[in-house]
Amino acid sequence: MSNIPGLHVLGEANFSDHGANRLGASALMQGLADGYFVIPYTLGNYLTTQFGKKVDANHPAFEQALKETKAHVQRLIDIKGTRPVDSFHRELGLIIWDYCGMARSAEGLTEAIGKIQKLRKEFWSDLKLIGGADGINMELERAGRVADFLEFGELMCLDALTRDESCGGHFRTEHQTPDGEALRNDEQYSFVSAWKYEGEGNTSTLVKEPLVYEQVKPSTRSYK
Question: Which of 54, 67, 87, 99 has the highest Cβ tally under 10 A?
Answer without folding.
Answer: 99
